[in-house]
């Protein structure tokens, strides 16, 4: 999946599930300090990302290291490579 | 437990009204003046160590959701434990939901500071979502509270009180029907925005 598509779909998750304005969604935005998520919101985020991309994230230790939106783009990209994720899936 | 809650409330009244008499004035304003005995969740901004004591203004039987440190205070800590205060960091979230939900259903209100830590300035920190998840689960009213003027009473790192006025505003409650369709994230930000907006008005005119 192209990086551009990952960014678009990830941002859609933040806009739809968290009602965060698109202007705030920059790669360097810290999901805790800038976007206002907490550890419980991250669980909701993981569920929404799983649904959006059709991948299994929940037990992935790398989620703990995510701080910025850019980290999420990179994480999804890496996950896509590992799972040969080629087409965006929406359930 | 009720006796200990009352004792803490009286202790708070002494701390905020009697001890700093003439030095610090506390003004409490209730915008709805309703207390039907139902357990509610008070959501407050947090600027100073005096904020938890200011909640003695509330004519409610209430406990506070705290962040460990009050339990470490010599005498008050023991009373807080006996009164049923909940140390949110010391229990799994499911236990918190169960214990807090039971208290709310018994008519005991909950005072919360969802920023988690003092902001020490007029800027408000991000909110944690735990208490909003609790409200959605238990379907109880949420009452936003604004505390203005406490940031230097006392300032962080000191116990000295600067003279001044502290204003505590109890805003109109949000009923479950008003927020039931919101996610915990949007609910916490809605409440945070309502507090921030009121503070902006209050601090512009005062």
Q: What attributes does this structure have?
A:
heterodimer; A: 91 residues; mainly alpha; Non-ribosomal Peptide Synthetase Peptidyl Carrier Protein, Chain A; 3 helices; B: 206 residues; alpha/beta; Glycerol-3-phosphate (1)-acyltransferase; seven-stranded mixed sheet; 7 strands
What does this structure look like?
The complex is a heterodimer of chains A (91) and B (206). Chain A is mainly alpha-helical and 91 residues long. Chain A has one domain: Non-ribosomal Peptide Synthetase Peptidyl Carrier Protein, Chain A. Chain A is built from three helices and no strands. The mean pLDDT of chain A is 88. By secondary structure, chain B is an alpha/beta fold. Chain B has one domain: Glycerol-3-phosphate (1)-acyltransferase, CATH 3.40.1130. In chain B, strands 1-7-6-2-5-3-4 form a seven-stranded mixed sheet, with helices on both faces. In chain B, helix 1 crosses helix 4. The longest helix of chain B has 22 residues. The model of chain B has no long low-confidence stretch (mean pLDDT 87). Classes of the chains: A mainly alpha (91), B alpha/beta (206).
What's the gist of this structure?
The complex is a heterodimer of chains A (91) and B (206). Chain A is an all-alpha fold and 91 residues long.
CATH fold call of chain A: Non-ribosomal Peptide Synthetase Peptidyl Carrier Protein, Chain A
Helical content of chain B (DSSP H or I, runs of 4+):
25-40%
Biggest β-sheet: strands ordered side by side in the sheet of chain B: 1-7-6-2-5-3-4
The pLDDT mean of chain B sits at: 87
Which descriptor suits the 3D outline of chain A? globular
Oligomer class: heterodimer
- Biggest sheet record of chain A: none
Strand content bin of chain A? under 5%
Reported by name, the CATH topology of chain B is Glycerol-3-phosphate (1)-acyltransferase
Number of strands of chain A: 0
Strand content of chain B: 15-25%
Distance between the termini of chain A: 17 Å
Please give the CATH class of chain A. Mainly Alpha
Along the chain, the helix and strand elements of chain B come as HEEHEHHEHEHEEHH
């Amino acid at each position: 999946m192209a990086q551009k598509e990952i960014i678009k779909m990830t941002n859609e998750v933040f806009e739809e599930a968290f009602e965060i304005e698109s202007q705030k969604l920059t790669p360097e935005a810290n999901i805790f300090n800038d976007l206002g998520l907490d550890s419980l919101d991250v669980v909701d985020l993981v569920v929404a990302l799983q649904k959006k991309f059709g991948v299994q994230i929940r037990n992935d230790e790398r989620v703990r290291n995510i701080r910025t939106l850019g980290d999420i783009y990179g994480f999804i990209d890496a996950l896509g490579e590992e799972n040969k994720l080629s087409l965006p899936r929406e359930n | 437990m009720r006796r200990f809650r009352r004792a803490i409330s009286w202790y708070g009244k002494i701390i905020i009204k009697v001890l700093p008499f003439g030095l610090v004035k506390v003004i409490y304003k209730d915008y709805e003046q309703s207390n039907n005995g139902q357990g509610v969740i008070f959501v407050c901004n947090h600027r100073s160590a005096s904020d938890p004591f200011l909640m003695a203004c509330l004519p409610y039987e209430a406990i506070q959701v705290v962040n460990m440190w009050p339990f470490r205070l010599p005498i008050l800590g023991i009373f807080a434990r006996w009164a049923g205060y909940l140390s949110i960091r010391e229990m799994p979230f499911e236990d918190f939901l169960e214990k807090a939900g039971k208290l709310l259903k018994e008519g005991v209100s909950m005072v919360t500071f969802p920023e988690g830590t003092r902001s020490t300035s007029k800027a408000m920190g991000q909110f944690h979502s735990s208490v909003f998840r609790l409200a959605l689960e238990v379907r109880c009213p949420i009452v936003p509270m604004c505390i203005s003027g406490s940031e230097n009473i006392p300032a962080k790192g000191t116990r000295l009180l600067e003279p001044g006025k502290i204003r505590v505003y109890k805003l109109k409650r949000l009923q479950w029907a008003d927020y039931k369709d919101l996610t915990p994230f949007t609910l916490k930000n809605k409440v945070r925005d309502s507090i921030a907006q009121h503070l902006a008005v209050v601090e512009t005119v005062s």
